[in-house]
Amino acid sequence: MYNEEEFIGKCLDSLAATTFPRDHFEVLVIDGGSSDRSCEIVQGRAGRFVSLQLLDNPKRLSGAAMNIGIRTARGEYVVRMDAHSEYPPDYVKTCIEELQRTGAANVGGCCVTRPGAETFLARAFALFGQHPFGVGSSRFRLGSGGAYVDTVPFGAFRRELFAQMEGFREDLMRREDYEFNSRIRAAGGKIYLSDKTQSCYYSVPTFGKFRLQSWRGGYWNGRCWLTNRHSFAWRHSPPLLFVSALLLGAWWATVRYQGLYALAAVLVLYGLAALAASASIAWREGWKFFAIMPFLFFSYHFVYGVATIAGALGTPFARGTRPPPAATVRTGGLDAAAAQDRVTRV
């Protein structure tokens, strides 16, 4: 967590309402140096749990936070959770039951995106995050569970898995969860998206944060591809292909007039697709969204595509898929309390 005073209280309240036995789990909140009231709010909720710890994350990276939590955890299972989200009472219980039933290495539920503020723009961001033209064919965002997938949000794991996979990478500011899941799949493990439960994630509230989100997502997507070839997925590449087509068309137009036609064709095809997607959203949610959605689609995809190129060019190629030493979680650190019959939420 980092500066989550608006959401961490709601998150912990949702966890306190869990149907899982209270004396069989602990809550670990990993803080990356919050400067707002986040830590104070966490400490104020401590009385609602049998065990709640607030731990420091000096690196302020999600991968480092996960590794801190894993090393501290005493339970048989670890459930990764985001402070910017809320969870239904059955979430932990269902994920663990599905983990046992399927034999998968990671199980999570679908994720519903809600507005991060009571504004028209925040609602538009939430709608963007639930449409396939905006976020691709990610099943957990589109509510299509009950299947094996390439990744899930807020997954449940057996704790011994982290010793086998050697933890999360700490050289990725974003995409560390997808990179970890790609290593699971490369090792023969399965990831299951349950249709029996779902979480709620709050979208960004302002256009500035929306643009920053697209830049960071694209940049670290490119970096992730370079550091682990198994993390590449075609469904993450359309913004890169779109921007590449624009750049190629613009270059071609400088040497041949036919390039102008190619550039125009790319823009027209994209515009038609964006209008069709906007119309489908407006039909369900109201025509007031029709004008803003094409702009949001183009803004996000263009920035994401440019950032992916920047990320791909911004780091040397690394052939290995193992995380660097700083991200390694050694077996000895995990086996000390493996017999504890608890569930840890990070």
Structure report:
The model is unreliable at 316-346 (pLDDT under 50). Helix 10 packs parallel to helix 13. The strands form 2 sheets. Strands 2-1-9-3-7 form a 5-stranded mixed β-sheet, with helices on both faces. Strands 4, 5, 6 and 8 form a 4-stranded mixed β-sheet that branches. Helix 2 links the parallel strand 1 and strand 2. It starts with 7 loop residues before the first helix and ends with a strand. It contains 14 helices and 9 strands. It has 2 domains: 8-205, Alpha-Beta Complex (Spore Coat Polysaccharide Biosynthesis Protein SpsA, Chain A); 234-313, no CATH class. The radius of gyration is 21 Å and the shape is globular. The chain is α/β, with parallel strands linked by helices and 346 residues long.
